[in-house]
Amino acid sequence: MTTNRPAPTRTPPVRSSSQRPPDRRTKPTPVNRTLIITGIVGIGVLAIAFAGALLLIVIVLNSAGRIPEGVTVGGAALGRLSLEDARRALVELGNRPLEITDGAQTTTASLQSLGIQLDIDYTLAAARASQADASLTPWYTVNLETAQQGLVTLAENAYVEATSERPGRAVDIPVVLDRLRVDINTEIADGTLDLSVIELPQLAASTVTPVNYSGPRTTHIVRSGEELGLIARLYGVDLDAIVSLNGLSDPDLIFTGQELIIPAAGVYEPTAADAPAPPTNTGRALVVSISQQRLFAYENGQLVHSHLVSTGLPETPTLLGDYAVYVKYAATDMSGPGYYLPQVPWTMYYYQGYGIHGTYWHNNFGRPMSHGCVNLPTDQAQWFFNFASVGTPVRVVA
Questions:
Q1: How far apart are the C-alpha atoms of 214 and 192, rounded to whole Å?
Q2: Which of 136-150, 163-177, 243-257 has the highest mean pLDDT?
C-alpha cells in the first residue's frame, strides 16, 4: 500500500547574535593618553626614590668607616679621614718628640724614652664615636719604672751645681713621677712636660787653701749629679783643698767620670766625739743627724760606721724623735702626698711612711733633698739594711 508523504520543508538555520562576526567597519576605541603619562611619571618618581635610597645607603656605609667632620686629637686634624688614615695620623702623633722644660731651659725627649705610649686603639675609637668638630685629648699610658730611668737622664742635663756664689737646681724626680702616675694625659696634653725643680742653697765659703800638701790622699771618681762641695764634705776636707790639689781653675767645671785627688786617706769617718749619742748602749742602733746630714751606726754603744745622707726638705722635714725599724723591704714602691717612686731599694721604715732607703735618682748626699725619708747611696743603703733588724732603735736629732 502506498502512502503519500508530504515533501520535507527546508528551514534555513537561525544564527545567534553571539555568533555574529564583527562588523569590520566599526572604529577602535581611542587610548587615554593622560593615564599613560601619569604612569610614566610615577615610574620615574619611584626610580629616583630608589636611586636616592641607594645613594643614602652608600653614604651611610661609607661614613661608618670615617671620623666625623672637624674632629681633632691633640691638634691633629682627623675629620673625614678613613680609619686607616686616622690610625696613621695617630701613629705619627705618638712619635712626635715631647718638649721638656725646667724653668731655665727647654729640650726634647721621645715619649718612648719616658715609658709613655699613645693608646692608638682607644684614641681612635674615641675619635670615631665623637661628635662633629670635637677636640679630643690623646689617651696615653706610662710605664713608671721606664719613666724614672728617663727622668734621671733629663735631671742630669737640668742639674746646676750650687757654689759659694750662687744656689743650684735639681729636678725633683719623685714629684714628676707622681704627676705622671696620677694623670699622664693632662700632664702632656699640650705636648710639654714641666719638670719640678728643687733649689739647692749656696755652699758656705771656703776658708782653707792648702799649699804644698804632702799628706795622705785618695782618688775619687765623680758620679753623675755630684758637686765639688759635697765631695769635699764626703771626705771631710775643705773644698779649696781639692781645688788646689787638682789645679782646678773653676770649681764649677767638674764632669762625670773625672778623677779627683782627695787630700785624705779615705772617706771621712767621724770620731765618737763628733757623733751624736746613741739611744742605747746595748745591741745595735741608728742615729740620723739633720745638721750633719749623716747616718751613724752603733753597736753596744760604739760607733762602727757613718755616711752622708739627704734628709727632708724644709717643706717636708724629717721628723725628730726616737723610733724603731718596724719593717724592711729589699725593694718597694713608695708614695706620699705629691710624690711616687717605684722599686726603691733597701728600705727600712721606722715611723709611719718615714724610712731609710737607697736612692738612685740623685747624688746630692750631704744636703736636704727628700720628702721626709733618709736618702742613702744604694751601696750604703744595703750596708745599713744588712746591719739593722726589725726592732733596731732609730733616733733622729737636729
A1: 53
A2: 136-150
